[in-house]
Amino acid sequence: MTPEELERYARHIVLREIGGPGQQKLLKAKVLVIGAGGLGSPALMYMAAAGVGTLGIIDDDIVSLSNLQRQVLHSTDAIGDPKTVSAIEAIARINPNVTVIPHQTRLTEANIAIIGNYDLVLDGSDNFDTRYLVNEICAAQNVPLISAAMSQWEGQISLYDPANGTPCYACVFPNQPADGLAPSCAEAGVMGALAGVMGSMMAGEAIKHITGAGQTLRGEILIYDALYGETRKMRVNPRKDCPVCHKNK
Q1: Is the pTM of this model over 0.85?
Q2: What is the pLDDT of residue 180?
Q3: Whole-angstrom distance, CA of residue 220 vs CA of residue 57
């Protein structure tokens, strides 16, 4: 590492669980973030600050005024700009040494090859169609997936890595909720700072996964209730009849 990098990442390097070797792993890592919104914003900011070498961003949306209550990556001046463009500018202010690869598109069956270019995927999307598609692709390509979701005052997060014995997203949530049972943030509302908590947790899980520090949320779901300040974890197991990850074994 250069003298500038040694100073920039000094607080990581002195951590026994990360050190110089762990920081080198971060610098070489390639992480794809699905969605530069409420969850993706803090996740991208903290991974950029941590020195994750390459950050890919998939998002086809533009910045709107209603985003700014929780999507802290974007500023008022960015209203009307593509979120990928706003994200590149914000990340450059945080850490100009990070390579940002924008994908100004929505993830579909037609462009799933994008995922194969990355070591790890963070899914901060806001719809179930994308979540199930991302899970299917990651399971098929043996790419670990950190997926989080939030609504109103509550968020949840897990690391899905069926290639290494964990369930996939579809093992835990085999069916999409019926219409109206899981309203969007636009419909149900969301406390802005909750996005910061959950997005930061995503970045923390990514840093642990990349460096090998501590224990990740493999095989566990962490649920955070911001309204009552409660956190709990649940153990989850693979399903032998899962049509997504079982067929890849």
Answers
A1: yes
A2: 65
A3: 26
